[in-house]
Amino acid sequence: MADLAQTDAHICFGGEQLQFTHPSEVCKCTMTFSIYLPPQAKSGKVPVVWWLSGLTCTDQNFVTKAGAQGPASELGVAVIAPDTSPRGDGVPDDPDAAYDFGLAAGFYVNATQDPFAEHYQMYSYITEELPALVGSEFPLDMDRQGIFGHSMGGHGALTLGLKNPEQYRSISAFAPIVSPLNCPWGHKALGGYLGPDTDAWAAHDACALVSAAAGSGDTRPLLVDQGDADTFLDEQLKPHLLSQACEAAGRELTLRMQPGYDHSYYFMASFMDDHLRHHAEALS
User: Fold this and answer.
1) How far apart are CA 76 and CA 38, in angstroms?
2) For 67, 224, 226, 265, which has the most beta carbons within 10 A of its beta carbon?
């Protein structure tokens, strides 16, 4: 496989759970991703669902904790989990080594501010470079793509999905940061990567994007699960803002507030089957 180095492989539910590294021209470093190929991929191309993870995560958190392989095998969909940021020598981190900016906190945007602009090009990496690579190397039907994620990755799934209706047929999220314009995580990340102009931030705010897309003919429904015992609910996540934006724009949103659930992978694993079925139905 051109430019791909396999670093892990396991048989799982009759399919293959694989991990690869590759040189990224976009991020100017070595990047890592994991891919689950269901057993159906042995006989033909399968649709693909992209998973975007949250703050502090690598590709492996989802692979080992989310329980996605079983339903993905049944439904015949591939699931790809990229890393959450560029890494390596020379890749800048948060000056204070905080968890919510820099390494493992790329926020799925293309940074414009130094010193981050050279490497932190996660938007282009996820929407352009990595799809081109996997589409050429694996039995994937790239005309049938969906996207979902958690927290920072939920923000990424909503914004990348909304901004690219021709690429992603389906969108869902667990406990997403729905409005970086209105929370501390968003202010720090978008300010650091994009600078102080909040107009630039709005292009990466799910609520603003929903409002901007009103009347565009984009009818893809959104599925969001949120635990009501999530400690980040009121300060960082604010799902009611997405509900208000979708209602005003006439966009279909299924927002499920799950009693007693927190922000962990235990929460995500509990409803992973529902989300993969949401995507499989749209990609069928």
Assistant:
1) 6
2) 224
CA distances 192 to 111, 162, 200, 268, 280, Å, are: 8, 23, 12, 29, 36
The reply to whether 10 belongs to the active site is no
* Catalytic annotation, pick one of 263, 275, 278, 279: 263
User: 195-226 in b/e burial notation, b at 16+ Cβ within 10 A?
Assistant: eeeeeebbebbbbbbbbbbeeeeeebebbbbb
Domain 5-283 has CATH 1.10.150.120: no
The full set of domain ranges for the chain reads: 5-283
pTM greater than the 0.90 cutoff = yes
pLDDT averaged per 10 residues, the chain (length 284): 89 98 98 98 98 98 98 98 97 96 98 98 98 98 98 98 98 98 98 96 98 92 98 98 97 98 98 98 97
Cα maximum dimension of the chain? 50
Single-letter residue type at 222: L
Is 151 catalytic? The answer is yes
The question of whether 59 is a catalytic residue gets the answer no
Catalytic pick among 24, 150, 230, 279: 230
Taking the alpha carbons of 62, 63, 65, 67 in that order, is the dihedral positive or negative? positive
